[in-house]
Amino acid sequence: MSVKVNDFSIHVATVNGSGSQSSNNVLMRSIFRMGIPVSGKNLFPSNIQGLPTWFTIRVNKDGWAARKAETEILVCMNDQTYVEDVKALKPGSVVLHHEHMSVPALRKDVTSISIPFSKIISEACPDPRLRKLAVNMVYVGVLAEFLGITDEGLELAMAQQFKTKQKVIDLNRAAIVAGRKFAKEHSEVASFPFKVEPMNKTQGKILIEGNAACALGSVFSGCTVVSWYPITPSSSVIDYFTEYAEKYRVDPVSKQKNFAIVQAEDELSAMGMVLGASWMGARAMTSTSGPGISLIAEFTGLGYFAEIPAVVYDIQRVGPSTGLPTRTSQADVLFAAILSHGDTKNICLYPGSVLECYEFAAKAFDTAERFQTPVFVLSDLDIGMNFYMADPFPYLEAPLDRGKVLTDKDTEKLATYGRYADVDGDGIPYRTLPGMKDRRGVFFTRGSGHNEKAAYTESGVEYKNVMDRLLKKWETAKSFVPAPILTGSGKNRIGVIAYGSSNEPMMESIHQLKTEAALEVDYLRIRAYPFSNDVKKFLENHDVIYVVEQNRDAQLLSLIKMEKGYESLLSKTESILHYSGLPLDARYITNHVLELESNKQKKRIA
Fold first, then answer.
1. Model-level pTM greater than 0.90?
2. In 3D, which of 309, 474, 312 has the Cα closest to residue 377?
3. In angstroms, rounded to a whole number, what is the distance separating the alpha carbons of residues 265 and 526?
4. Which of 67, 153, 330, 534 is most buried as measured by Cβ atoms within 10 A of its Cβ?
5. pLDDT tens digits, 118-138
6. What is 485-605's CATH topology?
7. DSSP element (H, E) containing 478
8. According to CATH, where is 3.40.50.970 located in the chain?
9. Which CATH number is associated with domain 4-203?
10. Is the previous residue joined to 394 through a cis bond, with omega within 30 degrees of 0?
């Protein structure tokens, strides 16, 4: 039997609240500590303890981190789901399962390894009260022996997972040792079809979730005020922000905290607090998901029209309504872009990696203050709550871009100051902050009609002037937001557009199309709205353009269709849509591209 080395997927099916997350993290990190690229994806229920949960570890020597639809190794720890989990396997897979599960009767074309988990943990853990906490570590030990995971890797992973809790480490080590002992005595160990061998591809790398990267970037970008209301999958952004702020934003001498975190009564109040803090001159943000975005619509309009900076992290999930709150999606794209009533266009950033989650934090705050407007950072559950490998993040050394802010020293500009006047021709007015001594810089902020001097008016002419200037500011933003990234020569017949967390599977799909079908494509990853002229040029330069999205209604393509001057190019576009709530995988994209191309070929022949 051939052996696959450093290229397989482990799927662990357990029960929510059973402590399996620690075991899965130790398993994933132990492989990572051996120098082998890994990624981890958690598929968990939206309800409380006791429901099924799955964790997938992808081991890939080439560094592909997207979800892999096929499972090679399945660990069955849940009686509720094991039948369906086993039926979904491809032939040749391996199943590790409780001894009472009838896996051999279900599938004759998979390798079934029955494990007496209760007996093993009883011998390894004398205290019956602790056995439930440690039993999942038994499958870590079994897999460690079958796969060839080193003890050193396991020890390093446990030290990272459990910190200095030596009793906890000892308990889990005993369970791992017992699992190893069982595997050594099992006849399958010698012929196990999957193995890990040490590599050097993770030296100096980190494993981090996107939400942690967003939080770290916000701290280092000068954010000092956070107001929020808990909602999955965005809550951990604030959890991580709190952790990092407690470490990096506390005065070492006075021990005074240089930040404020307020849990509001709802998302609407949270957004109001963010706008208030930003109006006062602080860098402020909130983090939420789709239902919260719905609630902040009115305050978003205030921020847009009164021109107040704000940063909003939208960690997208499946809707409408409550939807599937623990599943991933890209279905807030259109909503966030035009959130609020009236003519509103909001700047949106689409990070495509954990590094960009970190870097786009600085870009979001700089953009919000430069353009004096709410800026949305649209991540999603897949990139936000799952582990990805990355290089250590660079220190954000660039000075904060506070935009056009006047102080008492700007006497010349204050002489003719109008809060909403376009002095420089870029659509961006000057603002002042509360506390000025020069009263010429004081103005009243209102969300109702106003003129250049911020005075109340219902004049249609004055209103039109303000709205036209806001549109000019929008045009200026096109050259400031992150530009798209082109992969490929730019001269291929086929172009593909994607964004956000679709980037990982898209890059792998490009490799599959080239190596398996000799089909080369150009790929444009859009990283922001408003779109730069690069998007239009990409549409012009290709015969057909496939737009890959994780929503039902082709929302990014809808935004593209709204752009002036794009009308004649839209007949070239076709959507590849994925909206099951599961993370997008490369094979899905590859199969759809090949199918669409085959259909076109048949039409040409006919």
1. yes
2. 312
3. 35
4. 330
5. 999 999 998 888 898 899 999
6. Rossmann fold (3.40.50)
7. none
8. 208-390
9. 3.40.920.10
10. no
